[in-house]
Amino acid sequence: MKRLENKSVIITAAGQGIGKETAIRFFKEGANVIATDINRSNKLEELSKEYPKIKTYTLDSTNAADIKKFSDTISKVDILFNCVGFVHNGTILECEEKDWDFSFNVNVKSMYLMIKNIIPKMVNQKSG
C-alpha cells in the first residue's frame, strides 16, 4: 500500500516548481490530488495532461470569494499544502509599498484564507 493511499490533498501553486513536484509525488504515493494555481497556464495544463487523475483548478489564493467557492466544492481533505509564495526583487530599501502589500497578501493572507476555509472540513471529519 502506498503511504498516501485514499488521502485527499489540496496543493496551491501547483503549476510549477515545488508545488508541481509535490503534486506529482503525492499522486505517486496514492493521494487524490487537487492542484491549484492562479492561472490556467500551460504548466497547469501540462500537469493535467501528464497526470489526468490529478484534478486541477484555477484559484486566486488571495481572493476570499474564490477560495470560499472552491472550498464549497471539496468534501474531504486530509492534507492542505500551501505552496503559494512571492519574493520581491531587490532589498527592503528598494521595495515599493505596493510590492510589499502584494508580497504580504500572497505569502501570509493567502495562507490564512485557505486555512480558514479548509480546516473546518478537517475538524468536521475529525482527521486531517
List the helices and strands and how they pair.
Layout lengths: L7 E4 L5 H12 L3 E6 L4 H9 L4 E4 L5 H8 L7 E3 L15 H29 L3
Helix pairs in contact: 3-4
Task: Give a quick rundown of the structure.
The chain has helices spanning 17-28, 42-50, 64-71, 97-125, and strands spanning 8-11, 32-37, 55-58, 79-81.
Walkthrough of the structure:
By secondary structure, this protein is an alpha/beta fold. It has a single domain (8-125), classed as 3-Layer(aba) Sandwich (Rossmann fold), CATH 3.40.50. The protein has helices spanning 17-28, 42-50, 64-71, 97-125, and strands spanning 8-11, 32-37, 55-58, 79-81. Strands 3-2-1-4 form a 4-stranded parallel β-sheet, sandwiched between helices. α2 links the parallel β2 and β3 (55-58). α3 packs parallel to α4. The mean pLDDT is 94.
Q: Which descriptors would you attach to this protein?
A:
alpha/beta; Rossmann fold; 4 helices; 128 residues; 4-stranded parallel sheet; 13% strand; globular; 4 strands
The count of helical stretches stands at: 4
Query: What is the number of E strands?
Result: 4
- Taken in chain order, the helices and strands follow as EHEHEHEH
| CATH architecture tag | 3-Layer(aba) Sandwich
- Global mean pLDDT: 94
Question: In total, how many domains does the architecture comprise?
Answer: 1
Q: Biggest sheet, in brief?
A: 4 strands, parallel
Level of helix content?
Answer: 40-55%
For CATH, the homologous superfamily is named as NAD(P)-binding Rossmann-like Domain
Termini, distance in Å?
19 Å
> What fraction of the residues are assigned to beta strands by DSSP?
5-15%
CATH hierarchy class name: Alpha Beta
Uncertain stretches of 5 or more adjacent residues: none
Question: What form results from the Cα inertia axes?
Answer: globular
CATH topology: Rossmann fold
Strand line-up across the major sheet = 3-2-1-4
Content-based structural category: alpha/beta
Radius of gyration: 15 Å
